């Protein structure tokens, strides 16, 4: 169990839904603020941004090592991509202020010390570590020393790397860890979602488990919640048609609202295991089948399939005793429509 801004996150709580804005502001502060407004209206629990500059995350180089090959950003240099996608530092106060005004938690993914310093000045209540930064243990340790909850994506990480990052976070003071299963493909194919990993990660590392979902649609997130995911992170945009670095695998407002509703409904539906009758079922017991008189019977006459059978509702003897009843004689006159009881039968 961890807690972010007063909201508990764990197996006995509804799933915590994080709306990731990423680079879908398309270079406009007004659009970024509109994204915050629209995200808050979906009912999400938190809004997340990313805090870096192109120069703090990569080098300004067109050498082959720094060029993207394939996928959504084919041919772009890393510097150009991150320049396009970054959320300027000077926007952060306005974004945090807007989220606070709307009553929604905001936090971010920092990518270097300057980002952590900025987010600490804004009293960020939690931190995210991106999949690609899981191997940057000095950065993880720096974030952990802020003594806030940490959410860590595991895309591309092997078991040893996951163990290292969790140990680094906790040993340096993180106020708990949420480990997110993640498939680092953009978008991720549904058959590569592998959401069975969510409960496995939680059990293996003794942390809260969740999913960072890059698939199209909401099915993987809902399935993960059914398997025990306590936190879901999903990318968000005002409209995919508007474009943007992450638009192709982001949900629009109505879709994200459905994600929030469906994930919380899935958690409610999982409920608890057991053989006890659900409270809401009690009132319907009377409509189960039971034995009724289906034709008038004189006292002393035998009961046969012609005058007794199993029908709804359930006020008579249970259907399982029908073989014991047939052939017995009526203790009194029986009328059509009477529920059968033992005292209606002669010894």
Describe what is shown at a glance.
The protein contains 11 helices and 12 strands. It is of the alpha/beta class and 347 residues long. The chain folds into 2 domains: 12-270, Alpha-Beta Barrel (TIM Barrel); 279-344, Type Iii Antifreeze Protein Isoform Hplc 12 (Alpha-Beta Complex), CATH 3.90.1210.10.
Give structural notes.
With about 350 residues, the protein is of the alpha/beta class. It is built from eleven helices and twelve strands. Helices cover about 30% and strands about 15% of the residues. The strands form three sheets. The chain has an eight-stranded parallel beta sheet. It has a two-stranded antiparallel ribbon with strand order 1-2. A two-stranded antiparallel ribbon has the order 11-12. Strand 6, helix 6 and strand 7 form a beta-alpha-beta unit. Helix 1 (about 30-40) runs parallel beside helix 4, helix 6 (about 135-145) packs parallel to helix 7 (about 160-170) and helix 9 (about 220-225) runs parallel beside helix 10. The longest helix has 18 residues, at about 255-270. The chain is elongated and about 100 Å long. The termini are far apart.
Give the helix/strand layout:
Blueprint: E1 2-4, E2 7-9, E3 16-20, H1 29-41, E4 46-51, H2 54-57, H3 78-85, H4 92-102, E5 105-110, H5 113-121, E6 127-129, H6 137-144, E7 150-153, H7 159-171, E8 177-182, H8 197-205, E9 208-213, H9 219-226, E10 231-235, H10 253-270, E11 290-293, E12 308-311, H11 322-325
Parallel strand pairs: 3-4, 3-10, 4-5, 6-7, 7-8, 8-9, 9-10
Antiparallel strand pairs: 1-2, 11-12
Helix pairs in contact: 1-4, 6-7, 9-10
């Amino acid at each position: 169990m961890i807690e972010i801004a007063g909201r508990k996150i764990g197996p006995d709580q509804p799933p915590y839904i994080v709306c990731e804005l990423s680079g879908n502001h398309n270079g406009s502060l007004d659009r970024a603020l509109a994204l915050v407004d629209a995200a808050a209206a979906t009912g999400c629990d938190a809004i997340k941004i990313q805090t870096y500059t192109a120069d703090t995350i990569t080098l300004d180089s067109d050498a082959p090592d720094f060029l993207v090959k394939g996928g959504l950003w084919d041919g772009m240099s890393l510097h150009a991509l991150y320049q396009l996608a970054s959320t300027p530092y000077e926007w952060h106060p306005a974004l945090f202020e807007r989220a606070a005004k709307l009553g929604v938690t905001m936090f971010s993914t920092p990518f270097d010390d300057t980002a952590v310093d900025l987010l600490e000045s804004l009293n960020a209540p939690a931190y995210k570590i991106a999949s690609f930064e899981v191997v940057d243990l000095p950065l993880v340790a720096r974030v952990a020393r802020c003594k806030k909850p940490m959410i860590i994506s595991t895309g591309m990480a092997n078991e040893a790397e996951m163990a290292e990052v969790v140990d680094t976070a906790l040993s340096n003071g993180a106020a708990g860890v949420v480990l997110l299963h993640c498939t680092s493909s953009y978008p991720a194919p549904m058959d590569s979602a592998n959401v069975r990993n969510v409960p496995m990660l939680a059990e293996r590392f003794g942390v809260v488990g969740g999913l960072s979902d890059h698939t199209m649609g909401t099915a993987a997130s809902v399935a993960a919640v059914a398997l025990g995911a306590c936190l879901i992170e999903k990318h968000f945009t005002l409209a995919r048609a508007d474009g943007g670095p992450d638009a192709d695998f982001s949900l629009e407002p109505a879709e994200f609202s459905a994600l929030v509703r469906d994930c919380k409904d899935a958690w409610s539906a999982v409920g608890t295991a057991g053989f006890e009758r659900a409270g809401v079922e009690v009132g319907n017991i009377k409509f189960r089948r039971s034995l009724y008189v289906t034709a008038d019977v004189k006292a002393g006459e035998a009961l046969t399939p012609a005058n007794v059978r199993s029908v709804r509702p359930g006020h008579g003897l249970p259907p399982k005793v029908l073989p014991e009843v047939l052939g017995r004689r009526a203790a009194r006159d029986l009328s059509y429509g009477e529920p059968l009881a033992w005292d209606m039968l002669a010894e």
